[in-house]
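Issue 218. Parser rejects a valid record. Input:
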Amino acid sequence: MYEIVVLSGKGGTGKTSIAASLAVLAQKDAIIADCDVDASNMYLLLKPDFGKTIDFYSGELAVINQNLCIRCSKCAEICRFNAIIFINNQYQINALDCEGCCYCAKICPVNAITMHEQKSGYMYISKTKVGSKMVHAKLNIGAENSGKLVAKVKNEAKSLAVEENKSFIIVDGSPGIGCPVISSLAGANYVVLVTEPTMSGFARP
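Output the parser choked on:
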C-alpha cells in the first residue's frame, strides 16, 4: 500500500484538482483523504454522499453559570484574549475568542466558571462518484487544532485501506507549511508538489 500526498506552498495552485484526478484514475483501488480541513473542497469534484458523520471534539470552552456568578469582574480582568464581555448585566464568553486556557475558571472565587469540551468540527466517511471511499472533514469557523483533525482523517483512511486491502491512499494535504501540513505528511511514501507556472512559483528559496 502506498500513501501519496499532494501538497502546495499556497492555496489556489491546483492541488485539489491533481489529487482528485489521481482519485479518478485509481477508482476503487484507493482510499481518498481530504486533509485540507480548514477549507475542504474536494467534495465539489468527487461528490461524496456524506454517508457517515462523526463529531470532532478538541480543546475546551469556558462556560459561566449565571446563577453562581457574583459579577466580581475578576475573570474579565485577567482574560488576555478579551473573551469575557459584559452584556445585559452578565459576564458572557465569546466562544470565538476563548482559547480554553482555564485561567478564568481557576481564579473565579465562587467556582461559577467551568470548562467544557468543545465540538470543533466533523469528520465524514463517504462513498464518491467514482466508487472509492473518501474520508474528509470540516473544521468549525474559528476552531483550532486543525492538525489534530488532519491526523484523525489520515488515521481513519489508513484503517479503511488496511481493512479493505487497498493499494493506495491519496491525500489532498493542507496548503502552506504549518501544523496541518506536517500532519498531512506523516507516514507518506510519495509527495506530489504543485506550484504555479510562474517565475515566483519556480524560484528557489
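Fixed in the parser; the record now loads. DSSP finds seven helices and nine strands in the chain.
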